[in-house]
Design brief:
Structural class: alpha/beta
Distance between the termini: 27 Å
Family: Belongs to the enoyl-CoA hydratase/isomerase family.
CATH architecture of the largest domain: Alpha-Beta Complex
Protein name: Enoyl-CoA hydratase
Strand content: 5-15%
Number of domains: 2
Number of helices: 10
GO molecular function, one term: isomerase activity
CATH topology of the largest domain: 2-enoyl-CoA Hydratase, Chain A, domain 1
Largest sheet: 6 strands, mixed
EC number: 4.2.1.17
Strand order of the largest sheet: 1-2-3-4-6-9
GO biological process, one term: fatty acid beta-oxidation
Radius of gyration: 19 Å
Length: 267
């Protein structure tokens, strides 16, 4: 993993996670797919984690699939990420899908800082983040149709809550390239910034100083919005609140606000 992904723990439980295959614009080869899965699994188990900032080193966030890693002799049903496309090797996902979907499964918020390019699978990994901050000149595209393929790195499950149906269809059918500024207008991005990483770190610091149990509960609730019924969501709201109301961290949030000081939460 260490030659593809770096994880650095910063103050207040912020994980600085970077794709570090800069010489290839962080394109996805077999080793990068494996590294992403390892990183996600490591973060899931990391004590004290409160928020993740995901970015790419060098000139790009992620240029998508490394086409040189594809083999003409490979069985059509297999994946460059390992295993077969049909096998659910990572819960509900296959190995490649987990590289994007896995960020949604992390118990804490993930903020993607996107610059340079985010093509194909790169745009889908970006979509796995809770919040997506892009440079206005970032180049993005759902690139698969150029190669006669469909998006299959969990993008379809992720974009449906981010982008209008007709807009998504156009971008998939045409593989049209668009900028970070347009990505914000269309819903692919949350914010536009001239320094996405600095903006992401600033936002991460805010989130890291909230009640971590409330943040995790809020993410669980947000993750339900895609397919849960109204009744299930209403019940889940109540269940989450019961877990945290009058608990030490919730009381600390109140006291810190009243005393105008930084809160001291327990994980």
């Amino acid at each position: 993993m260490k030659d593809r992904i770096s994880i650095t723990m910063l103050a207040d439980g912020i994980a600085d996670v970077r794709l570090i295959r800069a010489d290839k614009m962080n394109a996805l080869d077999t080793a990068m797919w494996s590294a992403l899965a390892e990183a996600i699994d490591e973060l899931k188990a990391k004590p004290g984690l409160r928020v993740v900032v995901l970015s790419g080193e060098g000139r790009a966030f992620c240029a998508g699939l490394d086409l040189s890693s594809l083999s003409a002799e490979r069985d059509p049903g297999t994946s460059s990420a390992g295993g077969t496309l049909s096998d659910r090797t990572k819960g509900i996902a296959n190995n490649a899908q987990y590289a994007a979907w896995g960020w949604r499964e992390l118990p804490v918020p993930v903020i993607a800082a996107v610059h340079g390019v985010a093509f194909g699978a790169g745009s889908q990994i970006m979509a796995g983040a809770d919040i997506r901050i892009v440079h206005p000149d970032t180049r993005l595209a759902i690139m698969e149709m150029r190669w006669g393929l469909v998006p299959d790195v969990a993008g379809m499950a992720l974009w449906r809550t981010q982008v209008a149906d007709d807009v998504l269809r156009e971008m998939i059918y045409t593989n049209r390239e668009f900028t970070g500024s347009e990505a914000k207008l269309l819903g692919f991005a949350t914010h536009v910034s001239d320094d996405p990483l600095a903006k992401a770190m600033e936002l991460a610091a805010v989130i890291a100083n909230k009640n971590p149990h409330a943040i995790r509960g809020a993410k669980r609730l947000c993750n339900m919005l895609t397919d849960a019924s109204d009744a299930e969501i209403l019940q889940a709201e109540s269940d989450e609140q019961v877990k945290i109301i009058r608990a030490p961290n919730q009381m600390e949030a109140v006291m810190a606000h009243m005393e105008k000081r930084k809160p001291n939460f327990a994980d």
